[in-house]
Amino acid sequence: MKEISIPSHTHLTTANTPSLPDMADCALCPRECHVDRTSGHTGFCGQSKKVIAARAALHFWEEPCLSGTNGSGAVFFSGCNLGCVYCQNHTIAKGQTGKEITIERLSEIFLELQDQGAHNINLVTPTHFVPQIISALQTAKDNGLTLPVVYNTSGYEKVETLKRLEGLIDIYLPDLKYYDAAISARFSGAPDYFVKASAAIEEMFRQTGRPVFADGEDSLMQKGVIVRHLLLPGCEADSRCLLHYLYQAYGNDIYVSIMNQYTPMPQVSKIPSLNRRISTEEYERIVDYAIQLGIENGFIQEGETASESFIPAFDCEGI
User: Fold this and answer.
1) Do the bridges between strand 149-153 and strand 171-174 make them parallel or antiparallel, or are there none, so unpaired?
2) How far is the C-alpha of 54 from the C-alpha of 318, rounded, in Å?
3) pLDDT tens readout for residues 226-281
4) Are strands 2-4 and 149-153 parallel, antiparallel or unpaired?
5) pTM surpassing 0.90?
6) Beta partners for 258?
7) Which of 232, 234, 210, 236 is nearest to 297 (CA)?
8) What Cα–Cα distance (Å) separates residue 194 from each residue in 202, 255, 266, 290, 301?
9) Beta-carbon contacts of residue 169 (< 8 Å; ≥ 6 apart)
């Protein structure tokens, strides 16, 4: 992706385990399932109150200002509250892989990634575990965590939930997948996606403000918002609407990452419109449109990125 413009922590001071009352009638995300996750029931995300994660390791495939030279300290949580039909991480999104960990162990993982030289702590698909993550971050910070924390999300968030993260999250990394409600309904079962995601990004920007970078060769982001948009086959007009919206709303006060890595997975073989990759011409047209709009702070992808080889192994490494 190109820019365009293990010491043990066995004696942690632990925060109180959260009572998780909101999980007894869960409405953390826009699905608002209202199930009692404390009793083992699950809603759309497929997860109870038990924290399940599938990988915690240095990750080198994020935007350059996040991966740097050492890698981003990515923690991949199991389950997902959006459930896109084309998801390239569908095994983890469906909760088919992962290991149960305590809140204390999650805090230790954050510190272990810091010891390994990670440039940041990258919380991947964290929405449905926000209460536990808050507790784990507070504990880790009390025990020496100093890295920026990245909230890496589909964008399908509630403002009320995000407000609870203020002061704990330094960098927001949301997707903005769809503008058209019919497309988001068809591919993610969420006709309200743009309404919820655009409001969420507004709250993320309120919390972080304009991007801040560390001095040095790596130009690592310390604070700010990077909005990702994955181009989908046949959705070029929708992509244009999203880029126009982002530039009108934020100008160059956020970064926009335009992604060409859509990979047709086996589950879309019966959906002809999704069963192909993005062409070079399609991608170049969208990049040209972004430049014409005036977007200067952004990232584009070059080369062969649409490949299953770019999907990490969810083998519980580091968990």
Assistant:
1) parallel
2) 9
3) 999 999 999 999 999 999 999 999 999 999 999 999 999 999 999 999 999 999 99
4) unpaired
5) yes
6) 229, 300
7) 210
8) 12, 18, 27, 19, 24
9) 149, 150, 151, 207, 208
